[in-house]
Amino acid sequence: MKTTTLKGALLVTTLLGATAATAQDAELIIESWRNDDLAIWQDKIIPAFEAENPGIKVKFTPSAPAEYNAVLNSKLDAGSAGDIITCRPFDASLALYDAGHLADLSDLDGMSNFSSVAKSGWSTDDGSATFCVPMASVIHGFIYNKDAFEEVGIDVPTTEAEFFAALEAIKADGNYIPMAMGTNDQWEAATMGYNNIGPNYWKGEEGRNALIAGDQKLTDEEWIAPFRQLAKWGDYLGDGFEAQTYPDSQNIFTLGRAAIYPAGSWEISGFNGLADFEMGAFNPPVANAGDTCYISDHTDIGIGMNAASDNPEAAKTFLNWVASSEFSNIFANSLPGFFPLSNASVALEDPLAQEFISWRSKCESSIRSTYQILSRGTPNLENDTWNASVAVIKGDESPEDAGKRLQDGLASWYAPQQ
Q1: 312 and 176, same structural domain?
Q2: For residue 356, is it within any domain?
Q3: DSSP bridge pairs for 27
Q4: How confident is the model at residue 117 (pLDDT cuts 50, 70, 90)?
Q5: Looking at the structure, do residues 325 and 399 belong to the same domain, yes or no?
């Protein structure tokens, strides 16, 4: 009897030990499109997490960016995807959640570190469920050549009048192209043009949500006004801007040939290694001194859990760590220009990145107007905003006609705008 009891006790102990070992020895696989971040994950992020959680091993297995959606969907359908899914913002990830591939993380402890705006890229339309932890945003504004400003004798503009006075002074000086931006690739005109300056006119989230609700239209002055400003840009983009590509614009600025670059903060790392002059940055100038400023602080990358993961508890441990201050500091300083979306304290080392993120304390944050809900139909509002912005800059379409075309396209399929 005693022998049987002892054997039973040993068996229970063995089983408990095996269970504990299994829980402690979980291996998490991360799916991502950021293959250029591989070294950062392997050398900095994963070692920091594993040092705090020695029983959990993590492998970062990225795909090529252009192939990620197709590769991920194929793996999810086959049941071979990793435990952790890096999430693109809005509709692509929402589709994965609706298909049952991404777990609802609304109750994850770390989610309390994020605002509703930060979570908007990875939440259902009604906000009732959030399925990815927000990792980082990119902020829009203008990067400028400090040497050029000093040579021309101009200050950083804060109002539209000062902005155009600076452009005119640079043009008159003749040694620099006032602004480096082309229209050949189209998306820059909307992303670094219309959706860069636009939030100051439509008051950020107030206008964006009003457009979604159908309370404002793209023919309203708040939405036509950014086109009016863009219509003036063509005089300052240099000869041949119509055929100028995105890489052309990057080269023109980093070679010191242009004074201002309408920018996304993702440029910081690349520009730091290419420009041999000191750079600064300024947020989109407001119409009048004293006006509230608004910035496009756009949700760019999140991270969620495969609903079919064999290691859900380990995955949640990792995702809670991603929501922490420690992760935010590692990520933000390894990739300057990609800014944490949590309310955790972050100390940025890069001065240009510091300048961009400082705008959060003085301006209201919003996201690109076309990215949530409004580009699900045909014609696609995002793509139409690209070509409308280009047409206005080139003088091929008036601001009013551009707004009417966009409104007619949206109203043709989106019920709240009908």
Answers
A1: no
A2: no
A3: 57
A4: confident
A5: no
Ramachandran region, residue 301 (left: φ > 0; alpha: ψ -120 to 50; beta: rest): beta
CA 34 to CA 293: how far, in whole Å?
32
Residue with tokens 């402690």: 24
Give dist(CA 250, CA 248) in Å, integer: 5
- CA angle, residues 212, 217, 220, in degrees to nearest 5: 140
Alpha helices in 335-398 (DSSP H): 351-358, 381-394
Do 52 and 144 share a domain, yes or no?
no
CA distances in angstroms from 269 to 43, 187, 331, 384, listed in the order given: 18, 21, 13, 30
Q: Is the dihedral of CA 241, 161, 262, 403 positive or negative?
A: negative
- Cα separation of 388 and 392, whole Å? 6
Give the range among 5-14, 30-39, 111-120, 190-199 with minimum mean pLDDT. 5-14
- CA nearest 245: which of 390, 82, 42, 45? 390
The domain spanning residue 211 has which CATH number? 3.40.190.10
Q: Are residues 379 and 256 in the same domain?
A: yes
Is residue 316 within 8 A of residue 26, CB to CB? The reply is: no
Q: Are 105 and 319 in contact (CB under 8 A)?
A: yes
Alpha-carbon gap, residue 325 to 314, rounded angstroms: 19
Q: Provide mean pLDDT across the span 194-208.
A: 98
The pLDDT, as a whole number, for residue 370 is 95
User: Which residues face 302 on adjacent strands?
Assistant: 87, 134
Strands 339-340 vs 293-305: parallel, antiparallel or unpaired = unpaired
CA separation (Å) from 232 to 56, 163, 380, 389?
Answer: 56, 11, 26, 12
- The count of domains in the chain is 2
| pLDDT score, position 355 | 97
Structure tokens at 111: 């989610």
Q: Taking the CB of residue 241, how many other CB atoms lie within 10 A of it?
A: 22
Same domain (yes/no): 306, 224: no
Within 8 A by CB and 6+ apart from 240, the residues are none
Distances (CA, A) of 11 to 18, 25, 152: 10, 21, 82
pTM over 0.85: yes
Q: Phi then psi for 42, rounded to 5 degrees?
A: -70, -35
Strands 84-87 and 27-32, bridge-based pairing: parallel
**Do 411 and 284 share a structural domain?**
yes
Residues 289 and 410 in one domain: yes
The percent of the chain in helix, strand and coil, each rounded to the nearest 5, is: 55, 15, 30
Domain carrying residue 325? 2-136+300-350
Would you say residue 358 lies in a domain? no
Q: What is the mean pLDDT of residues 180-207?
A: 97
